[in-house]
Amino acid sequence: MSRVVLVGKGAPDKGGIATYIQSVLSSEVRRHHQLCFLNLYHEGDRSGGRLSRANLVRTIADAAAVRRASRGADIVHIHTALLPLVTMLRAGLLARAARRSGALVLLQVHSGVAQGWLTTRRRAILTRRILAPVQLVITVTQGSRDALARVLGAQRVVLIDNGVPVTAFGPSPEPHHPPRILYVGVLSPRKGVVDLLTASDRLHDRRVDHEVLLAGGTPEEGPAPEAEVKAAAGRSVQFLGLLTPDAMPGLYRQADVFCLPSWSEGMPLSVLEAMATGLPVVASDVGDIARAVEDRVTGRIIRAQDVDGLTESLEPLLLDPGLRRRLGDAGRRRVEERFNLAQTCARLDALYAEMAS
User: Fold this and answer.
1) Sign of the four-CA dihedral 322, 325, 330, 333
2) Which range has the worst mean pLDDT, 10-19, 201-210, 315-324?
3) Strand, coil or helix: 215
4) Which of 21, 56, 187, 208 lies at a 20 to 30 A Cα distance from 316?
């Protein structure tokens, strides 16, 4: 059995990377490979992605931890958002630490912004140099895969879709009265939460009765964005706070529509989890969301920061339980066929075996 060390943020962090890593650790992959996990979560850290003394000290300490954990490992699998540049520099330093211990390095990019950043020759050269210790890059979006392949070479970049354990979610919820819109993620305007609250106010003005459930907490940049979201909350808004992964299936069943009007995403697990539950999804056309959510088939796709489009897309779903059920059932079938966790882990299993050989 090859020895694989997964590196990234884990519990008590409740973000998408932590959820993904835990899914892999609990999957069938552990039957064929010896999996270890180096948790780089730091309580109270708010400097991620910024050039600061605290971030530098933490990164140096983390690189030393990676080097120790990599001794005797065949593969070190580092999970990162990759960008902004400070985050890429950190990922590159962790990769170098793993290589110095003799391990092969697999870097997984969980965001979908590479294609918007890799637009100049200088940035391409920087990326090649920083990621030189990395043998293979996994992306979760087609756009990031294409952008990084142009810079690093197609043989060094592979797309593996995110997946969710479909059987853990569902059955589809019975209609609630009034219907409920659910958002899951950090509370920040960049996630489109204020756009959602503005659309909700407009729908109430049209006498479209509904409730909004917001599940999430403070973003990495600090409490100011969360305060802006809470200041925008109007009628029938419930703040549910951070929930554990075990509570998520029950949370989705409390809703009728899932909404993620974010300004930037990769392939968010929350969208796939909502679809697996049988919820229609209204989401912005960013990252690879449109590869999961088919407009007017499994939900609605809107432009980011388009409050008018968001309002018009939510209204018929709130008014028509039959429409919600049809789109939700189609969404669950799509996740079963294309975005289930078993397929994701099978591809990862095969990739580990290929690298180790």
Assistant:
1) negative
2) 10-19
3) strand
4) 187
Q: Domain map of the chain by residue range?
A: 2-163+340-356, 166-338
Report the mean per-residue pLDDT for the chain: 95
pLDDT tens digits, 82-92 = 999 999 999 99
* Contact between 62 and 96 (Cβ < 8 Å): no
Query: Which CATH entry fits the domain spanning 2-163+340-356: 1.10.10.10, 3.40.50.1980, 3.40.50.2300, 3.40.50.2000?
Result: 3.40.50.2000
Domain boundaries 166-338, CATH class:
alpha beta
Q: Which amino acid is at 45?
A: D
- Note the pTM of the prediction, 2 decimals: 0.92
Same fold, 2-163+340-356 and 166-338: yes
- Alpha-carbon span 40 to 62, nearest angstrom: 7
- List of E strands, 81-133: 104-109
Hey, what's the torsion of the CAs at 280, 138, 40, 95, to 10 degrees? -160
3-state secondary structure of 156: helix
Give the list of residues 6+ apart from residue 29 with CB closer than 8 angstroms, or none: 35, 345, 348, 349, 352
Residue-wise pLDDT tens digits, 271-284: 999 999 999 999 99
